[in-house]
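Contributing: when you submit paired examples, paste them exactly as shown. First protein:
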Amino acid sequence: MAFFAAARQGRKDDAELGTGVWRRAHDRFRRGLDRYHQILEGIEDDDVYNELVAVANELGAMLPRVRSVCVRAQSSSPSTGLDIPGALLQVHRALSRAGNTLATTAEAAAMTRLDGERWGVASAGLDNVRRRAQLVADDVEEAERSMPDDR
């Protein structure tokens, strides 16, 4: 069953996001989110876990927003390759930064987990994770602001 659901989702993504830069930007963000969630598995310190889950929830809430920007961008400036439509350069730049920053947020969460397990100190790491997550939010907001109105 999961195979068919994945195939249907892939066709839907192709229709809505295309196969070019907007699909790549969306998928990069989703992979970063998946990486972050993988880090949560097996955390034994309840306080660290709860803090990282709260950040995960905030980051997860951004995925529909990223998808919406990518769908709108594909609709207004379709992409099938690696060329970034000039009119939406700022949108793509912000989405790329959001995906990259999300990946570094996952790395920071991994380091926080290790520090908590090894040294019993995770507070500085948690601040770093929160700071990076805020940068992701800022980048998503910038992408949304940079999208021209559909009117």
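Second protein:
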Amino acid sequence: MTTPASNRPTATVAVACVTTCIAVASVYLTQPVFAEIAATYGRSIGDARLAFSISSIAYALAFFVFGPLSDHIGVRRMAGLGLLLGAASAASAALLDDYMGFLLACAVLGASAAAVPAAMFALMPRIARKDQIGTYFGLIIAASVVGITLGRSAMGLLTAGLGLRGAWLACACVLLVMVATTRALPEDAAGPSSRQGLLSIYAGTARMLMAPDLLRLFATGFLLFFGYLGVVTFLTLRLHEPPFSFGSAGIGSISLLGLGAVVGAPASGRLVGRFGSLAVGLGGLGIVLGAIACLAWAQSVIGVSVGLFLIFLGVFSCQPAVFVRIAQRVDPARRGAASSLYLLTCLGAGSLASAVLGPIWVNGGWPAITAICAMTTILSGLLLCSDAYISRRNIAQPA
């Protein structure tokens, strides 16, 4: 059924972008305040890093739950419940004195946040014309960029002014306010396929993970995000060291530079129609590789600033190109599930990087981190090229 909101796609996209931004921000709240978490709970900074690892892992895994459901459950309901549960989790994080309880609250916060972008990625193809899909995907990805940056910067600045617990309560209030904005979203569920049983829905989604045409693209995102989030996560620890010696406010402030790269996602969504998804995707990966090199050798705030701007620009210029390639290979009724599976693999890679690269940081430091992350970025580009080659070859073969 068509709703009034669905007749106003511009307003719907605007609300979708804002809610996505805030939900994604909640996953990254712990990244700039590892030192404050460690001091509050009497733990090491290494232990404090688990707060982000657990939150991001829960966020990634939750896409397997919410992604398939996003093709069958109303957007308004899914997003509203996710934000409401996120607000309760953030408030719990502020009030709990037990570290294990705090980690559990972070996990629930990450999982609930996934409901919002899962719903919005399913919504975009339903309200966009065929020539707008790349642009609409780009806008939601741009909102995610803003959310990542906002989460890192706002939490650092709020903690400097209100303390860690006060900052968590402030974030809970913002999430609660955002629940009201979901009333502006359409209340549509997917069509006839929404009558499928849960077992059938999830079995079909699991089969997507085995489809070679999709698996190559999922692996491309996995390698890209391993490198991207690996660098960004350990950059927090790098900035605590000389010659920077930043506190949470400094890390929060410099993270705002990622906002400048937000133009990359919607712009690349338009460029896909002109130059093709392969060229746009490889261009974004090239920017990421240059950004990692810049951050690897940076010894000044200017060097770090340029590197941060470029890594956000490159990653989120590449993403619309991959989303478009995925959307071209699945039935419209399953695009929400396919998009969410891609996000699951991307974010799962970032979570894995946070955990796996810990010993690398201890033994090899920043040079080893950036070298490994540059390597995974190169592998991502090679895999994207192989996907394009195989796809062209399959099309050229007679039926």
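If you have annotations for the second protein, write them as plain sentences, like these:
Residues 7-181+197-396 form a domain with the Growth Hormone; Chain: A; fold (CATH 1.20.1250.20).
The chain has one domain: 7-181+197-396.
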